[in-house]
């Protein structure tokens, strides 16, 4: 019996080579397919709970741009509070005396962003100031307020508006 076990072990001493070339090819194809079919965006547009965006049937992917949010509590540029609002209304004396549509605090915050983007563009040729802005506004706000914000934004150099809405689809 000892010789029978020894003979069986000698028959098992052969080497076994696993052929994984086809398996690697298959996983590579699956990986490329998943990467191509998965649409992801580095843009994060997450409105606050206090913001009630308007609805729309328009569909489009978000773009990389400065975020401007107008809610009942205030005006925010890139998630920083620029101007506090009182029940969705501008406080007195925040507009320019010579131009009642011009909001000085908002203009200053946007001008700072323009200056920052242009200084980055000097250092990095792939960055250009294009004047794009993602505009988020509460649907219950007065149109005159939205108009003043848009006017001031345009005066600061941001004239390409992309409006954030809730999709009905």
Structural description of this entry:
With 169 residues, this protein is α/β, with parallel strands linked by helices. It contains four helices and seven strands, in the order H-H-E-E-E-E-H-E-H-E-E. It has helices spanning 2-12, 21-37, 104-123, 143-156, and strands spanning 55-56, 66-70, 74-77, 80-84, 132-137, 160-163, 166-167. The strands form two sheets. It has a five-stranded mixed β-sheet, covered by helices on one side. Strands 1-7 form a two-stranded parallel ribbon. Strand 2 (66-70) and strand 3 form a beta hairpin. The chain is elongated and about 110 Å long.
Please summarize the sheet with the most strands: 5 strands, mixed
Chain-averaged pLDDT: 80
Whole-angstrom Rg: 29 Å
Please estimate the helix content: 25-40%
Helical run tally:
4
The share of residues in extended strands comes to 15-25%
Shape: elongated
Low-confidence stretches: none
Count the domains: 2
Sheet with the most strands: spatial strand order: 4-3-2-5-6
- Assign the structural class, choosing from mainly alpha, mainly beta, alpha/beta, alpha+beta, or little secondary structure: alpha/beta
Distance between the termini: 76 Å
Write down how many β-strands occur, each being a DSSP E stretch of 2 or more residues: 7
Question: What is the topological layout?
Answer:
Elements: H1 2-12, H2 21-37, E1 55-56, E2 66-70, E3 74-77, E4 80-84, H3 104-123, E5 132-137, H4 143-156, E6 160-163, E7 166-167
Helix pairs in contact: 3-4
